[in-house]
Amino acid sequence: MSPKLTPKGAATRQRIVEGAAAEIRERGVAVTTLDDVRARTGTSKSQLFHYFPDGKEELLLAVARYEADQVLAVQQPQLGSLTSWPAWRRWRDTVVSHYDSRGRHCPLNVLLSQLGRVTPGAQAVVTELLRRWQDEIEAGIRHLQKDGEVGPDLDAGRAAAALLAGIQGGVVVMLSTGRIDHLEAALDVGIENLRANGNR
Questions:
Q1: 90 with 160, same domain?
Q2: Which domain holds residue 21?
Q3: Same domain for 146 and 169?
Q4: Which of 39, 75, 88, 182 lies most in the core, judged by the most C-beta atoms within 10 Å?
């Protein structure tokens, strides 16, 4: 358990985490050193190890948690309010706009391609992120089922998993090619399939 921090201490720790996240997005986790983080955040070696006594691995885990929270935060409040077809469209537009503007510097890229492979702890953070994300989508599908907009026989969990997998694939293609249309297609077809299920 980490010791309870004062507001000033918590702010300093958060500044280190955010600085490390920015450094990793720009340079990559393999080449980012603690000295790079110290230079970027203006912290001393003793400060850094005060907040992260286990060194880089502990800092990377904190960065993974921070980036995971960012992935979901940028989709709110739309992701948590998937209660109508216009709401689903707003969420779709939010996701596309975010990844189109952030590109390879998006938190999801950092998590999936870099941090998630570094330590078991960071991998667990990625797993938990995807579970939380899928749960939000599934809750939206179940809300539509309750309102009669989607058929009751649809497996909401599997449909949410497929939609999330489509998003991940679309983001990977975007990161590889710079094209956003695969992500748009994954969201559009996934939502259209939900609507078609309700029209049967």
A1: yes
A2: 7-63
A3: yes
A4: 88
CB 16 within 8 A of CB 48: yes
Domain identity same for 74 and 158: yes
Indicate the number of domains in the chain: 2
Structure tokens at 28: 């990559």
Q: Which two tokens stand for residue 97?
A: 């706009």
The CATH number covering residue 105 comes to 1.10.357.10
48-88: pLDDT as tens digits: 999 999 988 899 889 889 988 988 999 999 999 999 999 99
Query: Which of 38, 49, 51, 46 is CA-nearest to residue 4?
Result: 51
> Are the C-beta atoms of residues 156 and 141 closer than 8 Å to each other?
yes
Q: Give me the half-sphere count of Cα atoms (radius 13 Å) on the Cβ side of residue 143.
A: 15
Last residue of some domain: 48, 63, 78? 63
Instruction: Assess contact for 173 and 182: CB atoms under 8 A.
Output: yes
The crossing angle, in degrees rounded to 10, of helices 120-146 and 56-73 is: 10
Q: Give the DSSP per-residue string, the chain.
A: -PPPPPHHHHHHHHHHHHHHHHHHHHH-TTT--HHHHHHHHT--HHHHHHH-TTTHHHHHHHHHHHHHHHHHHTTTTTGGG--SHHHHHHHHHHHHHHHHHHGGGSHHHHHHHTGGGT-HHHHHHHHHHHHHHHHHHHHHHHHHHHTTSS-TTS-HHHHHHHHHHHHHHHHHHHHHHS--HHHHHHHHHHHHHHHHHHT-
Residues 110 and 12 in one domain: no
